[in-house]
Amino acid sequence: MNEVAAERRVKDGVLRLEYRSVPGRKHEPVFAQEDLDKLVKPKQPLVLKSKPRARRQLEANGQNGIMPSDHHASIPAVPLHRKLFLTVPEAKAYGGLPEALLLEKIHVKELRAILRGKYFISRLDLERLTVFDRLVDVGHAGGR
Question: Which CATH architecture has domain 80-143?
Answer without folding.
Answer: Orthogonal Bundle (1.10)
